[in-house]
Amino acid sequence: MTRPRLDRTRRAVEAAASREGFALDPDQSALLDRLARLGDELSGTRRRPPVRGLYVWGPAGRGKSWLAGAFLAAVATELPAGAATRVHVYDLFRALHAAIHAQRVSALAGPRSAVGQGGPTRGWRTRASAPVAEPTPPGPPEESPEPRPGAVDAAIDDLLRGTTLLYLDELHLHDTGDATLLTRLLRRAFEAGVVVLATSNDEPGTLLPNPLWHHVAEPGIALLRAHLDVVELAGPTDYRALGGRGRGGFAGGAWLSPGTTAQLAARGLVAPAPGSTATISTRTRTFAVTAAREAGGRSELWVTFDDLATRPTSTLEYLDWATRFARWVVTDVPLLTDTDRESQQRFIAVVDVLADADVELVVTSPHRLAAFRGALPDRPDAFRMTSRLLLLAE
């Protein structure tokens, strides 16, 4: 190990924490030590493969994603441009489905350079750059014909090309198709020498927890255990419960109950005229919303809970709209226990996408946030949603 490089990584991450007004707790500090060793192995001139990656899991709000992101920013300076790549789980599967579709409609000709050798990576959306233009994706996996195996591996190789360190943020599995794609991605990545860093609320063995389908995820779980060290970050404090560290982006949002005109005005918001509507399009689909406008130099999306969650919207729409609107105002949010299971899961996904994209969320609801959080349905990842909502002012 190279002590100066280890110290440089640690100082960079600790300085990032200091800029945001906090210091690492002992559990986070111990994880940083392990991350710094990973960075040293990746950046060393005498790198001897294979370098083992890291799978960090634990309860929501303990700082897993923040630490991994700060580490990635620090270590990226030691690697070729674009070789350290972060992708959130929703973006991962969106990019893979789009790339597989592209392979199906237009076979790529000519030799491909080896993956994992540095250079820009195509296909991932990151916070630092605008989304990459994509072809029209296929419909939901269960409604689409199974793409030929060659197309899947070719699409994965294209998305991995140029990547040395791949950071999979908030890895979770609840769909068998996603589990199969993850296995294929991991296999191709490890064959190419790509090192994987993952954060998750789930221990690897609990991915795709449905006992009827868990066996589909087992090959991918075996790959994770074979190539990554599993580390738990389970400190006693959910730091989101202490309030947002910053007052911008997602943490600059609010939960307003009951959402009066005065409450909105206090945040510089003016509700659209009663009965007003607008339409927004995502690829070939069009959706009615309350308003889609510019206000105070910011793009705003106003949409009722019913229009957002009770209609068949999907993460494809949420990811698209998150790049187009800097502030979302979701009105008339009920207790999730008073809605159907599909609506529950859609709202959970909205919070996930907006938090990851750092887009401001303002909620109006007849219920206080404590009441909303206390009436949780038995839905995957609801616990993570409630932790994130603690960042909103009330």
UniProtKB/TrEMBL annotation:
<dbReference type="GO" id="GO:0032153">
    <property type="term" value="C:cell division site"/>
</dbReference>
<dbReference type="GO" id="GO:0016887">
    <property type="term" value="F:ATP hydrolysis activity"/>
</dbReference>
<dbReference type="GO" id="GO:0051301">
    <property type="term" value="P:cell division"/>
</dbReference>
<keyword id="KW-0547">Nucleotide-binding</keyword>
<keyword id="KW-0067">ATP-binding</keyword>
<keyword id="KW-0131">Cell cycle</keyword>
<dbReference type="GO" id="GO:0005737">
    <property type="term" value="C:cytoplasm"/>
</dbReference>
<dbReference type="GO" id="GO:0005524">
    <property type="term" value="F:ATP binding"/>
</dbReference>
<keyword id="KW-0132">Cell division</keyword>
<protein>
    <submittedName>
        <fullName>Cell division protein ZapE</fullName>
    </submittedName>
</protein>
<feature type="region of interest" description="Disordered">
    <location>
        <begin position="109"/>
        <end position="151"/>
    </location>
</feature>
<dbReference type="Pfam" id="PF03969">
    <property type="entry name" value="AFG1_ATPase"/>
</dbReference>
<dbReference type="InterPro" id="IPR027417">
    <property type="entry name" value="P-loop_NTPase"/>
</dbReference>
<dbReference type="InterPro" id="IPR005654">
    <property type="entry name" value="ATPase_AFG1-like"/>
</dbReference>
